[in-house]
Specification:
Helices cover about 35% and strands about 5% of the residues. The protein contains 5 helices and 3 strands; from the N terminus they run H-H-E-H-E-H-E-H.
């Protein structure tokens, strides 16, 4: 691998590009890696099939089967990509302990393990709601004409904003 890099470095140098300087610059570049890239958007909720316009199957070979495998895959990817990156985490990746927790009931406690992991691994979290692959997502969620469905998704989004606030490294802790 180092011989291949040396060859590439020489070729880039001939074009006036200092690959060492570029790699150093990348150390200050922060991506927000998507958690679903390690499991094809399946998550860990006790739900059914993926739906709501998602163009993924949730069944590729080698996908993470549990949170520990997902975290290991994320750390492996981070080790191969220059820089320190964030993790973009969807609500469906909560630690629900095998319990059915509907999306309008999700709480910070379901993500405490992720928050601890993010601090231990210097991987700040970006947190998202999950408004797809749910019996109430159908073709509309927050803009659904049915008030009960709309209220469900509004509550889900509010709870996710609370989790995002709790998981932010910029949050003032008391």
């Amino acid at each position: 691998m180092s011989k291949m890099y040396e060859l590439a470095r020489e070729r880039y140098a001939a074009l006036g590009i200092d690959t060492e300087a570029v790699l150093a610059q990348l150390q200050n570049f922060h991506l927000s890696m998507h958690c679903w890239q390690a499991d094809d958007v399946a998550g860990f909720e006790a739900t059914g099939e993926l739906s709501g316009g998602i163009q993924a199957t949730g069944n590729y070979p080698g996908k993470a089967r549990n949170i520990d495998e997902l975290r290991a895959d994320i750390l492996k990817a981070k080790s191969l990509i220059p820089g320190n990156h964030r993790l973009n985490l969807h609500e469906i990746y909560g630690e629900f302990g095998g319990q059915k927790v509907d999306r309008d009931e999700v709480d910070v406690k379901h993500f405490q393990g992720w928050m601890d992991w993010s601090r231990e691994n210097n991987t700040p979290l970006d947190f998202n709601s999950t408004s797809f692959s749910h019996p109430k997502s159908g073709s509309l969620s927050l803009s659904n004409p049915d008030k009960a469905i709309r209220d469900f998704w509004i509550e889900h989004t509010k709870r996710c904003r609370t989790i995002a606030d709790a998981s932010s490294p910029r949050r003032k802790r008391i």
